[in-house]
Amino acid sequence: MIGEYRISGRRAAEISADIEHAVGTGALRPGQPLPPMRELAERLGVNPNTVAAAYRTLRERGVIETAGRRGSRVRPAPATTGRDHIRVDVPAGVRDVSDGNPDPALLPPLAHAFAAAAGAGDRTPVLYGDDPVEPELARIARAELDADGVPGGPLAVVSGSLDAVERVLAAHLRPGDTVAVEDPGWGSVLDLVPALGLRTVPVGVDDEGPRAGDVRDALAGGARALIVTDRAQNPTGAVVSAPRARDLKSVLREYPDTLLVEDDHGHRIVDLPLHPLAGTTRHWAFVRSVAKAYGPDLRLAVLTGDAVTVDRVRGRQRLGPGWVSRLTQRAVVRLWADGAVDGAAVAAEYGRRRRALIDALARHGVAAHGRSGMNVWVPVPDETGAVARLLHAGWAVAPGARFRMSAPPGVRITVSTLTDDETGPLAAAVAAAVGPAPVRAYA
Hints:
The protein contains 15 helices and 15 strands. It is α/β, with parallel strands linked by helices.
């Protein structure tokens, strides 16, 4: 008996079903310990191996967890930290440089592309059972991946980078598995991993990407997956350099069963070369979103990877949304074919705005980071105070707590819409709010 609940059953399937039903109804609560296997076997009059098989089934289904001599307990409900809510309310008259959005002026108009796609759809409607991937989109995407050295593999189309990450993790991992994540890193990923019932272990980041030593420690400690942002890392702007890629590949070769997930959301807004890690491990996935270059509302990303991973993603996708609208896919193809975005020009403009702010901060003695993308990361000694003082001075920045686990404090500034006239006043306000930055910039 556990509290007022008495577990029942004679066969392993009956015992596991009874416990799972009790968890579902609330009769057994998250975190509540279960009886030791021999004790429960004696109560039920069954062989201990029967209870062991029931507990094993429950662990595999993510209902319970076992912690060595501390025994088994009902797994706590997956939790998220709600990092998206760690933001400041922006009053009227305050300049918002916190949102992480691209500059709307650098996004292409979509009306013509969707009109052309709709016309094609009228002539040849997409029906149930049709290929979920637009052939011309697959051809163009594959050619670009080949040019960047991403290994060959099947393609899937998903609803953005985060959708890809979730589907890949779910395809391979079980609740309780550990995922190595960048710290500082994308707040949505830091929320997603625990929401899937997975554990996170932080990996330090510098301007050249995840630190190889930290990755080795995480994998040696049992992490089953690693998520890496190749370019335009959020929030630091880090880019995986060629030397760092070699070091990371060397580590990954020591742990070939690691699930590797790479996010190249900065494609077409970054002017630094890609150094992919894909193909180093047995199971891997590489994702490119169109959100930053073409518009977040398109909700489209191309995913490639090893055959098993992509097949699992596409199979599960068929049982949910089915596919990403071929109408949207055709519109993206038209945008690509028309050269609607001059990637080099967009990257150069974002780069100019980043460097202008970083240089202005340096003149005030404030160190900042941002090798690529649309954000600048500023280490600060007092994050809460810095955010509050900047808000009082008329600037809303993103609190670093949205992006950190164990990394030192900082603030993220989005430069995508920052004008030349605003750069100097913003740098002066940051300097007044934070003072000279600490030497240890990331971790």
